[in-house]
Amino acid sequence: MTTSTLDHAHDDHHGHDHAHHDMPTGARRWLFATNHKDIGTLYLWFAFTMLLSGGVLALMIRTELFQPGLQFFRPEFFNQLTTMHGIVMVFGAIMPAFVGFANWMIPLQVGASDMAFARMNNFSFWLLPPAAFLLAASFFVPGGATAAGWTLYAPLSTQMGPGMDMAIFALHIMGASSIMGSINIIVTILNMRAPGMTLMKMPMFCWTWLITAFLLIAVMPVLAGAITMTLTDRHFGTSFFNAAGGGDPVMYQHIFWFFGHPEVYIMILPAFGIVSQIIPAFARKPLFGYASMVYATASIAVLSFIVWAHHMFTTGMPVTSQLFFMYATMLIAVPTGVKVFNWVATMWKGSMTFETPMLFAVGFLFVFTMGGFTGLILAVTPIDIQVQDTYYVVAHFHYVLVAGSLFALFAGFYYWAPKWTGHMYPEGRGKAHFWLSLITFNITFFPMHFLGLAGMPRRYADYAVQFTDFNMIVSVGAFGFGLSQVYFLLFVVLPTIKGGPKAEAKPWEGAEGLEWTVPSPAPFHTFENPPLVK
Q: pLDDT tens, 458-498?
């Protein structure tokens, strides 16, 4: 990307007196927020709250699985825990966290004064807390929360109590929020870039979010359709998924995964964008193969629509379909491999330093690639049929989603927090957070590969006695990982917000982009007069 310079000629006295006179205060500032930075902050706090609550559900699961036999929870409640852990983490933590980053950084990176639709931006955030409340409250209705797995497969989902309806409504609300957020992101990127900022000069983070937003608009209505059909099956006498009435429960899986597989990329493409910003900054080199990165991201998005049934190799589909989905899935590994190659090539012969953002980015690269390889193994139909619904699959998607999405989010926090808060985070504690997270993550999820290969099924509250040792290790690791994130909140995030060394406008020597041309913390109103990108 070319070096961006700002035309400060008449920006100074305009920008700065604006920052004081119409900045709302108190509860009004947050309740009626239309400023992209405030809304980004709200998203990030919401996501972190959901991360911790989803984490508590996970630790309850691991407490039960510490030893064989039923210690703490009835199997029915255990299934509610596994289901709600998945829904809360996917729709409540990972997705809103990336939208928080988008709200904060996209206007700063493209030189826009704000997001395109400020009030809609406010609305799309405030849809989320009621949805989260519905999910939490569903534990307390008769029959408890839904226990159909986060995928909500029929016929289980058509037989649950009212907790299932609450989950359906919560997902509808969150889906509406996602669609509005995506429209906002697309219009902001396409219509509000600063003069001279062509699409191919845009930071990779903006590109990955632009493509992700199109994916969201394409697939959220598909999820809405699947859960609406479930709702009508439950209450209005239809039989979409009831074989006795002429329906087909496998059809639910097709519809769900036609949403669900692009959704997996929705949760990782913005992570690719964050990592593509950080690695060049700390290697002090431009991103290797920028154009190929853009095309690889786009091709991942396109291919993500033709691989959905690799989640369904054991449903009895014809061999020709199995072959098609197997090869299509292997094909999607190619653009992902291109990205990994480009990141490594960017670091090659760079003058690298390893501050916390870079540590998390390199950690992401290492562990995400491992998750990618297990995904490639699961793409092979005969292997997948053996390990389907075992802990091997659990290991695979946590390597992609925790070490992928979550590590990239941490990397992004450490990279941009100086711009958000005006303070440098405590470097030593950041590094401690990285090493604690990386080590406990691997202690938690690596043994799951062996459990899965040995045949331990997932989503069971009890297991055969030969799996005890690995499960004990996994549970200990899980508590370590959870406590590492509490450490991150108490000893990194809060101290950074409260104080710490003042951050310069550009705290990282190798960082490029418009966001580093505004002061730290970024003023309430930025780019009142659009900057000129040279």
A: 999 999 999 999 999 999 999 999 999 999 999 999 999 99
Res 5 pLDDT > 80: no
**C-alpha closest to that of 401 among 86, 47, 131, 19:** 86
User: Where would I find the H helices in 88-127?
Assistant: 95-110, 118-126
Domains of the chain: 12-517 (1.20.210.10)
How far is it, in rounded angstroms, from Cα 308 to Cα 258?
5
Task: Give the separation between CA 406 and CA 368, rounded to whole angstroms.
Answer: 11
Cα of 318 vs its chain's centroid, Å: 33
Task: Give dist(CA 496, CA 498) in Å, integer.
Answer: 6
- Kindly list the distances between the CA atom of residue 381 and the CA atoms of 168, 325, 374, 456, in Å, as whole numbers in the listed order: 32, 9, 13, 19
Which residues are tagged catalytic?
85, 114, 150, 177-178, 261, 263, 265, 276, 310-311, 336, 339, 458
Bridge partner list, 502: 423
**Single-letter residue type at 523:** P
pLDDT in tens, 76-86: 999 999 999 99
Contact call for residues 522 and 419 (beta carbons, < 8 A):
yes
Q: What angle do CA 438, 102, 422 make, to 5 degrees?
A: 75
In the DSSP assignment, the letter for residue 112 is -
- Segments in 422-514 forming alpha helices (H): 427-453, 468-488, 494-498
Nearest alpha carbon to residue 270 among 407, 430, 146, 174: 407
Q: Are 140 and 55 in contact (CB under 8 A)?
A: no
Instruction: List the end-to-end C-alpha distance of the chain, in Å, as a whole number.
Output: 11
Q: Do residues 497 and 443 lie in contact, with contact meaning Cβ atoms separated by under 8 Å?
A: no
- List phi, psi (to 5°) of 150: -65, -20
Helices 407-421 and 269-283, axial angle in degrees (round to 10):
60
Q: How far apart are CA 96 and CA 119, in angstroms?
A: 17
Predicted model pTM? 0.95
CB 505 within 8 A of CB 519: yes
Residues 6+ apart with CB under 8 A from 229: 238, 240, 241, 252, 255
Q: Cα-atom radius of gyration of the chain, to the nearest Å? A: 23
Q: Which residue has the tokens 């997270």?
A: 437
How many whole angstroms separate alpha carbon 352 and alpha carbon 355? Answer: 9
Whether 491 contacts 508, CB under 8 Å: no
Specify the long-range contacts of residues 235-242, CB closer than 8 Å, at least 24 apart.
Answer: 235/165, 240/154, 241/154, 241/155, 241/158, 242/154, 242/155, 242/158
Nearest to 288 by CA among 334, 336, 355, 339: 339
Residue 120 above 50 pLDDT?
yes
Tokens of 533: 């990108």
Task: State how far the Cα of 175 lies from the Cα of 42, in Å rounded to an integer.
Answer: 18
226 within 8 A of 219, measured Cβ to Cβ: no
